[in-house]
Amino acid sequence: MLHFKIIPAFFVLLLDAAITSAKDCKEKCPLGFQRVHGLKHCYRLLIDLGPVSHDKGVAACGFEKGATLVTFDHKGDDQILRNHFFKLYGEQMKNDSAYWDALGFWTGYIRKYGSAKDSYVNMYSGDAIDKSLFRHSQPNNLLLGESGEEACLCRKEFGTTHLKKGNGLDDYPCAHPHWIICMHRDVFALNMRIYNSALNDGVKLPENGDCELDWVDQNYYQFKMMREKKIQKKKYHLADLYLEVWDKIGSPECPWWL
């Protein structure tokens, strides 16, 4: 359960004087995620989760501040990701009781329901996959009887640097276990990063250069911005409403086990 602590408005009004300007922002990933050289985003291998089905991977990444299963910007990105994480966790993977050579990692691509066998899309955006991401002769959409169709895409064989017939993505039954790598595209839930919203209009950054404001700071500036816009449109009754609820907004405090 998410708990809330009320922050008095008079305290929040002191923030204007406490925050100074900064020319640049320091880019960083959410806690537990990391940059990978050659890729644009933030990544985390859920090593403690172990190999799981595609749907469990989707859910697990969602709990990582709204992350997604990995998707790729360019051909070869999957190989960069594989090389990076196998170098870090390869020995730990091999010691996992569920390990075997065929296991790779799931991606956020799935076959579009009811369409041609090679019509795969990014499950989060709905955009068609760049077909250059497929390994040679893939997808082959094997029909596996009770095991189902191969409707989810993975990079198979985490432990193999160079796959037969070339590297890239394969279609697999969604129930098959693979490792899970989660991704954030630099925007994540409750990240407090003011450059990701209209809050960057006239808001001063902390003097240490961080691109984020804590909950109290962001809440203050958001209400200030919305109230000023209502006043500009002469909607004074709505501006007064913002002022009325300003000091009643809670600050989330997550339990230790989240």
Describe the structure.
The strands form three sheets. This protein has a four-stranded antiparallel β-sheet with strand order 2-3-9-4, with helices on one face. A four-stranded antiparallel β-sheet has the order 6-5-7-8. Strands 1-10 form a two-stranded antiparallel sheet. It has six helices and ten strands. The chain has two domains: 3-27 and 189-253, no CATH class; 34-184, Mannose-Binding Protein A, subunit A (Mannose-Binding Protein A, Chain A, Roll), CATH 3.10.100. The chain is α+β, with helices and mostly antiparallel strands and 258 residues long. α5 packs antiparallel against α6.
Strand and helix layout:
Layout: E1 3-6, H1 9-12, H2 15-18, E2 34-35, E3 42-45, H3 54-62, E4 68-69, H4 77-94, E5 105-111, E6 120-122, E7 152-155, E8 170-172, E9 181-184, H5 215-232, H6 236-245, E10 250-253
